Amino acid sequence: MQIRMKSSLICYGLLGALFCPALMAQEGDSWTYSKETPEQHAAKMEWWNAARFGMFVHWGVYSVTGGEYKGEMPTNSAEWMMNKARIPIADYKTENVDKFNPTSFDAKSFVLLAKEAGMKYIVITAKHHDGFAMFHSKAGPYNVVDATPFKRDIMMELAVACREEGIRFGFYYSQCQDWHHPGGLGNNWDDTIERVSFDEYVREKAVPEARQLLTEYGPIAIFWWDTPRDMSQEAFDSLHSVTDLQPGIITNDRLGEEYAGDHKTFERQIPRKAPVGVDWEVCMPISASWGYKKSDTDFKSIETLIRNLVDIASKGGNYLLNVSPTGDGTLLPQSTERLQAIGRWMKVNGESIYETTASPFGDLEWGRCTKKEFARGSTLYLHVFDWPADGKLFVPGLKNKVEQAYLMDNWNAVETQQTEDGVIVSLPAEAPDEIASVVVVKVHGPLEVAKVLPAPGKDGALVLLADMAYIHNNEGSEQASVREGRRGGPSYISRWSDEAAWVEWSFKTDQPGQYEVFAEFSTEENSGFNIGLSGNFQPVGVQATGGRRDYTEKMLCIITIDKAGEYTLQIKPEAGQWNPLSLRNVTLRKK
Ligand code: JFZ
């Protein structure tokens, strides 16, 4: 387990002075407290990183009514129903708890479906914010065995089935929000509650329940905390230490604020660029809601789901795909069909996902890439989303000698041609798979990939797009970042309010001479910054374009390039003159 602290001050506050000698310095002023050596940590994460694909399950008494309360459907994810509809604890009991009887639930077939989909682990809501335990809690009778007509310990049945089927099993547990216990956070609508302290709730319920889940349910692979809130040192420590009961357990980063856990959690969104230096996971519901919601028909297409999995794997992360059992304990056919379709794809192509690491390339026009590195060579898995019409697939910058190339689907060999700029793979006319066809390329020796720099086109114009920029963010500042354009529009750099944040692009040119520098941007106020070519800066001022969404293209300055070669173009805010820009691109046009 790792805890990352922004500064030693916070570390004293959170961990107590006693623990501080155990802290190891990191770059800057952030700190790490770890009970494991980096080697132990890496070994522990090995299965998780090899897995790449897991099932998330949001299931609770809210599922009975499919997010509906007295004919009303609050506009939110169904597991938030009690909160959004401000349902009194007593009503939630009669409307939902008393009616929870999922008689069609079968743990074995549920786990087999995850396995069929190619998922290697399951993380399920043992207790969500509503405070209801989906296991036979010893901390109180508000649980599936003691309070519902179903009377079966669902977590135990799943733990057993997972163990039998070789699927790793983990618990989601809402440790801070608990809308039922009088000390839990979040319930501000039920005035019948006679409040006790949060620490008392942690002592009486959260810690005992977590301890029970980690001692009575066999090997638990993952503990997935959620919605961290400020808490006392004692509360934090007592929750934190519970997971030590399962050696090798993996925890996410949502126990407390500033707590890094073993992996980073991205929610609903896939990061544009591969996060570096962390293990990470994207959790995402298969439809719109996490918990089963009757009105939710917004199921992601099979294409989106498979390409998401590939996209995430190509950036070195895991996909935790959420499904939502209904009140009878089954999944809707929309979910089942999708899981089975992913499973069919994984049966053929799983080798290109499991045990792979991130792509060695930048953005690829036709799709994604994953890789495996071995002692004497490497395997590249080219995931082709857009099958080339001319049958030529270009792998930019690949220098290694290709030893073998074939289609994953049918093992048919394909021809490759080595060029100065990369490798060209000759493909048959028909894509083996409409969604993602995998071309396996085995190369000799350690991977050698030349970075491919943007260069002027035939018309002498060099376009530097927002998503090609390297953004330098000052630690702790509001982070300038590349954002996806609205409705497929061009990406742009946004939230660039910090004067200390700056951006740069590398490019190459074989056409020396003078270039006019244009930018497409928007800004609400006049702004001043500096443009530099490999360190030579000149000041530039621009006028307000109207609003944040009013983009304009303006010439900013002229730069001179004496000789062919590689260069970096930098834009740095001018202190005192800077007002945030939204920047779509910078274009150099040869005069
Ligand atoms: C939380 C829960 O409130 C929600 O019901 C669901 O269980 C989900 C997986 O997790 O919701 C969050 C938590 C964190 C963020 C957004 C929603 N976040 O960091 O953006």
TL;DR?
With 591 residues, this protein is of the alpha+beta class. Helix content is 20%, strand content 28%. The chain has eleven helices and 29 strands.
Characterize the structure shown:
This protein is an alpha+beta fold. The chain folds into 3 domains: 34-348, Glycosidases (TIM Barrel, Alpha-Beta Barrel); 367-444, Sandwich (Immunoglobulin-like); 461-590, Sandwich (Jelly Rolls). The chain has 11 helices and 29 strands. An 8-stranded parallel sheet has the order 8-7-6-5-4-11-10-9, sandwiched between helices. A 5-stranded antiparallel sheet has the order 20-23-28-25-26, with no helix packed on it. Helix 5 packs across helix 7, helix 5 packs across helix 11 (333-349) and helix 8 (198-215) runs parallel beside helix 9 (233-242). The longest helix is centred in the middle third of the chain and has 18 residues, at 198-215. The radius of gyration is 27 Å and the shape is globular. The structure holds 4-nitrophenyl 6-deoxy-alpha-L-galactopyranoside. Residues 77, 79-80, 226-227, 267, 283, 290 line the site of 4-nitrophenyl 6-deoxy-alpha-L-galactopyranoside.
